[in-house]
From TrEMBL:
This is TIGR04376 family protein. Residues 150-164 have a biased composition (Polar residues). It comes from Richelia sinica FACHB-800. Residues 134-172 are annotated as: Disordered. The lineage of its organism: Bacteria, Bacillati, Cyanobacteriota, Cyanophyceae, Nostocales. Residues 134-149 have a biased composition (Low complexity).
Amino acid sequence: MGLFDDFSRFLENRLEEFLRNNPHLELEMLLEQLREQEEDTIKLIADLKLQEKRSQEEILDTAQEIQRWHIRIQKAQAAGREDLVVPAQQREAALLREGSQKWGHMQGLKERITQSEELLRKIQERRQEVQAKATAAQTARTQSQSQQRLETNAWRNPVNSYSSKGDDLEEKFRRWETEDELEQMKRNLGK
């Protein structure tokens, strides 16, 4: 495993170095991560809201069941049926406990929804900040590339600022230098 860990660390270091050298790619990667987090959080909120709706329906069903048993208890008491009253009261108490648990579960879901919505808001804010930085970096990169192209073209295509007199001067110097070299060669051969 040591070799694999070393190789993994090496690749991570190379990736980090590459991203440091290409900050625009790091911003794009961060933007992609934020988009994924935003999507995941939106899905989580939708799932939690669905669970909350189911929980509310279960609470309503339990409340109706409690009401039904409460009416039965009253009827059994009115009829003097103590043999039915006690088990019905136990059933009602069990339903009340169940309803209380379901209520607590629903409150927990509501809290998680609130936290998830706050997280989503923060993710969206962060994504906007990173998007602004990425746009600024892209603009700067584009301007830098344009400037480099201009500078490169200036070196490739030097501006000829010499007039025709300058060209005549160049020609005179060439002739004089050539004649000077010929004279030098003649002297060297004559020795």
